[in-house]
Amino acid sequence: MDINIGISDEHRKKIAEGLSRVLADSYMVYLKTHNYHWNVTGQLFHSLHGMFEEQYTELAEAIDEIAERIRSIGYPAPGSFREFSEITSIEEDTDQPDALQMVRQLALDNETILRTAREVLPACEEAGDEATIDLITERLDVHSKTAWMLRSHLE
Fold first, then answer.
1. Residue 2: its pLDDT value, please?
2. pTM of this prediction?
3. Residue 8: CB atoms within 10 Å
4. How far is CA 105 from the centre of its chain?
5. Are 103 and 154 in contact (CB under 8 A)?
6. What are the φ/ψ torsions at residue 58 (nearest 5 degrees)?
7. 3-state DSSP helix/strand/coil percent for the chain, to nearest 5?
8. CA pseudo-torsion sign 44, 50, 52, 55
9. Theoretical Cys-Cys bridge with 129: which of 35, 70, 77, 124, CB 3.0 to 4.6 Å?
């Protein structure tokens, strides 16, 4: 069935590609945050364990919203680790860093998501895709605040 939602096929494709990168980055940070939640140790254990749980829980909900937006504009959402690893800007962490290194890495990763999300906005604005603009704006707010809170632990 043809899709006629007031956004051209060309714009929908460009937006879906951008959202797919945001989805991949978000999923990789979700995995990393969940890993850090499980493996954080040291004097900051209690506060970081709880903070990481809040962050990965929020990311899990966001991942679903991003994927559903991709579907709603007529494209399949990437959903495998292979697909995510091919398009993400986030480096996988195979080490067991100390608590402050975890915080530093997650701050940098949230800033990466911010940059990836900002790259989608021009296509959304050009297409008049207010729903995706709203979603991206919300993600910008969340990741800006998260990056700030993480950086604050490093001062």
1. 87
2. 0.96
3. 11
4. 14
5. yes
6. -65, -40
7. 75, 0, 25
8. negative
9. 124
Q: Tokens representing 71?
A: 């579907």
Look-up of token digits 């959304």: 124
What does the pLDDT read at residue 79? 95
Amino acid occupying residue 113? I
Containing H/E element for 133?
helix 130-152
In 3D space, the residue among 119, 114, 115 whose CA is nearest the CA of residue 144 turns out to be 114
Q: What six digits make up the tokens of 82?
A: 């292979």
Predicted confidence (pLDDT) at residue 155 exceeds the cutoff of 90: no
CA distances to 1, 11, 127 from 74, rounded to whole Å, are 10, 11, 15
- The model's pLDDT over 61-101, given as tens digits with 9 standing for 90+, comes to 999 999 999 999 999 999 999 999 999 999 998 888 999 99
Phi and psi at 75, nearest 5°, equal -125, 150
Residue 54 neighbours by CB under 8 Å, 6+ apart: none
Q: Measured in whole angstroms, how far is the alpha carbon of residue 107 from the centre of its chain? A: 12
| Residue-range domains of the chain with CATH | 9-152 (1.20.1260.10)
Q: Side chain identity at 109, as an amino acid letter?
A: D
